Amino acid sequence: MRWLLTLAVACWLAAVTPALPALGHENDIGMISPVMANRAGMTVSWFTQLEAASFRDLASIELVINENNSTTFFEVKGGPMREVISQHDISPFGKPFGVEDAEKYADIRREIMQAKLQARNKSETVTVNKYTLPQTTVFAMNHMSTIHAIDGETGKTLWKTKVGSTRYPAIGLGASKTHVAVANGSTVYCLAADTGKVLWERRASHAIGDSPAVSDEAVFVPLINGRLEVMPIEMKGINTGTFTSIGRALSTPTILGDQVAWTTDNGLLSVAPSDTTDSILFRLRGDSAFESSATARGGLLFLASINGYVYGLEQAKGRKIWSISLGERISQAPVVVGEHLYIFSDSKRVFQLDARLGSLNGEWGANLGDVVGYIGASQKNLYVINGVGDVMVVDMASGQAVGSLGYRGGLKALPNTQTDRLFVCTEGGMLQCLREIPNVVPFFHADEFAIAAKPTAEPTGEKKADEAEEGEDVFDIFDRNKKPQDNKNPGGAEDPFRRGGTGGGTGGGSSTEDPFRRGGG
């Protein structure tokens, strides 16, 4: 009887206690609302809840675009109503539609939507727009080593898999079009990208320094002893090979087609073939540590050291194209959007450089402050996150802030340099996709750099003195009558990124010694 009396008292208190007003602001539930998105000229494309208590529980997140597997969508839109139907959506009969049946279902939805508008005395005409996109998948991993595969266009969860043990740290994941590699403790798990099935697992030879990288043939695991362990996928990681380097490899390797590049905190960049461990293509040594990965685009390699130097290299041979000192500590990888390179310093500032010449746009972003990192970009706007966890909209032409979401809950972003979609995980563990309101179909940045790099006319003039004798310098695409910015140190110090010999000497030493010369194989 006591529990009955307790229940009666609880019901009486609930009935007589007045409702309290809601406290806080509109993102208390940890979501970016449509109202917030509209403030910045954006809309919420989709959202999905991850197995994460908050964005702090998200260990790793990566976006993969598979051009070999495309999906056809049908957008049904009329007035304020919008619905997207995919060929992979499940029909009422429990099977995927396919293209033809998806189109028929879209026509049915168009008629229903048109009837709803007419019932509301609306005169808008409902239309069906068809478009085909390459498969876009977001892979997210929480600190319990649970991996989610999410359709990047619709937000639908494709699969979910748990690997490893909660007793060991979830270091991170890497993904390709066909496989996903997960590092849990000192063990690497290889999964099928389309199903999430664990194909094999292999223990690394040493402690793992950061998330692995995945090519079509192998998984590349950075180790804190500076080595890069190569685990062949078809051999289930058994015939493991190793590339040797100096220092600790604490950043994710960069896949460069048939090559792989990785950096160490000893200031060493190494580039090697991805299909063999018999040789190193080239090594370059800087005068300070690298804490971030190299960035590749358009045949160029970009990297930044913690002492503020930024370098542009020829990917094929490692030849220096340009170098510049920004004077601030840099621990984030450079970001390439179009023909520009964006550098985010640890002093919460962002710089814009010409990606081909390395020249600094000193006026750009002069009034921007408290910028923590990059989120994404459209054709006109750059999206960054500031110190309070809000999303800022920056005009790429002027470098001026032109808007913000007004969010204050804290965010973790997936830096997206491939499309114009913004992927952010909010305080409540909600993964959301944002887009600019007019951009229903995603814009892909893949060809921007190549298009911008094409010369408008055949270059004229004499070759540069340091141009290779064996062939035309493919990066000497600017007018040779006008030299690129020298970018020397203010004190007149020698270029810290000039070509050196083939020896493997260390950096430092006298002021005339090249601190970033070519090392040995």
Please give the order of strands in the largest beta sheet: 3-2-4-5-6
Mean pLDDT: 82
| C-alpha end-to-end distance | 83 Å
Number of strands: 33
Mass-distribution shape: globular
> Mind summarizing the main beta sheet?
5 strands, antiparallel
Number of helices: 4
Gyration radius, in Å: 26 Å
What fraction strand? 35-45%
Uncertain residue ranges: 1-28, 455-521
Class of secondary structure makeup: mainly beta
Percentage of residues assigned to helices: under 10%
Question: Could you explain the architecture of this structure?
Answer:
The chain has four helices and 33 strands. With 521 residues, it is mostly beta strands. The protein has a five-stranded antiparallel β-sheet with strand order 3-2-4-5-6, with helices on one face. Strands 15-16-17-18-33 form a five-stranded antiparallel β-sheet, with no helix packed on it. It is globular. The termini are far apart. Residues 1-28 and 455-521 have low confidence and may be disordered.
